[in-house]
Amino acid sequence: MSSYLRVLRYPDFRYLFLGQSASAVGDQAVVVSLGLFITQLTGSPTDLGLVLAAQTLPLVTLILFGGVWADRLPRHRIMIVTDVIRATLHTTLAILIFADAVRIWELVVIEALFGAAQAFYAPAYSGLLPQTVPEDLIQDARALTASAGNLAFLVGPALATGLVLGVGAGEAFAFDAATFVISVLLL
Fold it and tell me: What is the C-alpha to C-alpha distance for residues 181 and 149, in angstroms, rounded to an integer?
């Protein structure tokens, strides 16, 4: 493990890693937050399927375009812009939930735009990571990032469940928006 942690000596990687780790926890929390919130809101599996499909289809459709853009534009700027977009979208969703004014069609639109932004973020991140450490440490950096992603896979849903069921869905989406703000600040 200590060999993987040595990549944290490089400030560019450290900031990228910490921002991505925060964002990954939020990303994992969103799926559970959406499931719990929509179940509470309508109880309809169809509504949940529509919202999740609305997030996934733009992601799958646009990820190749995101890769092209990541090869042509500064990757960190793409990541900052997409994090700002995703923070804004989930802040808007949190506000709608707090106001008790959210409708399924609004969730579909917000999550479709969220998926589209994610399609540009992911390739930019993948391309930027090797630029933050020496070549002989790229595998260690990827391994540490994957480990943090696996940890986020465990922590995010637990946090989402606690937030949605314990405090409220609005707080869960506000938390996710905050993870993107953290990522932007670290980038």
Answer: 18
How far apart are the C-alpha atoms of 91 and 175, rounded to whole Å?
A: 9
pLDDT in tens, 163-178: 999 999 999 999 999 9
3-state DSSP assignment of residue 134:
coil
> CA 15, CA 27: separation in Å to the nearest integer?
18
**Per-residue model confidence as pLDDT tens digits over 81-109:** 999 999 999 999 999 999 999 999 999 99
Q: How many CA atoms lie within 13 A of 163 on its CB side?
A: 24
DSSP string, 6-67: GGGGSHHHHHHHHHHHHHHHHHHHHHHHHHHHHHHHT--HHHHHHHHHHHHHHHHHHHHHHH
Look up tokens 């993948």; give the residue.
126
The whole-angstrom separation of Cα 82 and Cα 69 is 12
